[in-house]
Amino acid sequence: MTSLSVADLLNGLICVLPLAVVYIGNISVDSSFCKLQALVLKVVQITKVMLLLALNFDRYIAVTRALRYHDILTPNRVYMGNAAIWIISCIASLTDAFVVKWEISMTYDAVMLCVFKVDVKEFLVWLDLVLLVILPLVVTIMIYIRLAAVARHHAAQIGVMPTRDGNHDNNQQRLALQNQAQKASKTTRVMTLVFTIACMPIVIAGLLASYIDFSDIPWVLNSFIIISFCSGLCNIIVYFCKNSVIRATSRAMVGAKLLPCQQLLTSSFTRVQKFFSRIRPGRNSQHTSELDSEVGVTASPPN
Q1: Low-confidence ranges of the chain (pLDDT < 50)
Q2: Can you give the pLDDT at residue 9?
Q3: How far apart are CA 72 and CA 52, in angstroms?
Q4: pLDDT value of residue 106
Q5: What helix, strand, coil percent values describe the chain, rounded to 5?
Q6: Distance CA 17, CA 13 (A)
Q7: How high is the pLDDT of residue 78?
Q8: How far apart are the first and last CA of the chain?
Q9: Most CB contacts within 10 A, which of 96, 120, 139, 148?
């Protein structure tokens, strides 16, 4: 989950912000910028797909192998898996930066777009569609079909489980862990669905661009690109809505660190109080003496 959050952060900081500066500021870009942009976009895209698949497999193991989950997925294996995903994504993304010849195309509305040559565009778009959309979607559907079957089997087991048995405690523990994993898999399911819905339009538009001229309606491709970038923002919303740990952490961060103006206002108000107490000593001393007398009367023992 942390690695996927890093990919979402890179998607916003390295991909979305530079593109916004280029399009809004009408800054001239060259071929090197196009290659760098293609490399980073492809790395983030492949990483997010592979991490979503890894999360789906993680939920599958948690449900089907609940008691052995921590033995199968050790911290070292998780770290090595995340590192392997990023390395594979970087290697697989080199094709878009160095194999493909990028050119700069100027549209009629003075928006500069990075496009690559037509002779290899169709092949790469089809490859992206198969490897980054269709294949992960099929694997994810198969995983959740299997999880649904396991959930039905567990529900049937709960109904026929004997109350006194030597394996009763182990079965109860396994069913509790599987139920917890089933609930956690809902978050991954929503994230996978959001990513598929967000990235499917840009892939389909890339396929249609091989047969249809989008030069007259460039806003279509731009809209699909914006939608695909919004998948990272949607993931953040999903994290907050579906994960209680992230909600508690976010509230703590907002209350303690992300609102320094609150502490600033509190300290400023305290200084203002001290300032007015200094410029009005008579009233404050009178008020203080009244308070002291009240305290003395209250504290004096009855006769």
Answers
A1: 24-27, 118, 160-164, 166, 257-258, 283-303
A2: 60
A3: 19
A4: 59
A5: 80, 5, 15
A6: 6
A7: 81
A8: 71
A9: 96
Tokens 């279509």 belong to which residue? 220
Q: What are 113's two structure tokens?
A: 């777009």
Distance CA 228, CA 222 (A): 10
Q: Which residue matches tokens 């300290």?
A: 267
User: What pTM was estimated for this model as a whole?
Assistant: 0.57
What tokens appear for 46 in the block?
């492949």
Q: Which residues contact 181 (CB under 8 A, 6 or more apart)?
A: 59, 62, 63, 66, 69
Compute the half-sphere exposure of residue 58: CA atoms within 13 Å on the CB side of its CA.
22
Tokens of 260: 């320094």
In this structure, what DSSP letter does residue 302 have?
P
Q: Is 273 helix (H, G, I), strand (E, B) or coil?
A: helix
What pLDDT is attached to residue 299?
42
Say what the pLDDT of residue 31 is: 64
| Alpha carbon distances (Å) from 160 to 68, 153, 154, 157, 171 | 24, 11, 10, 5, 12
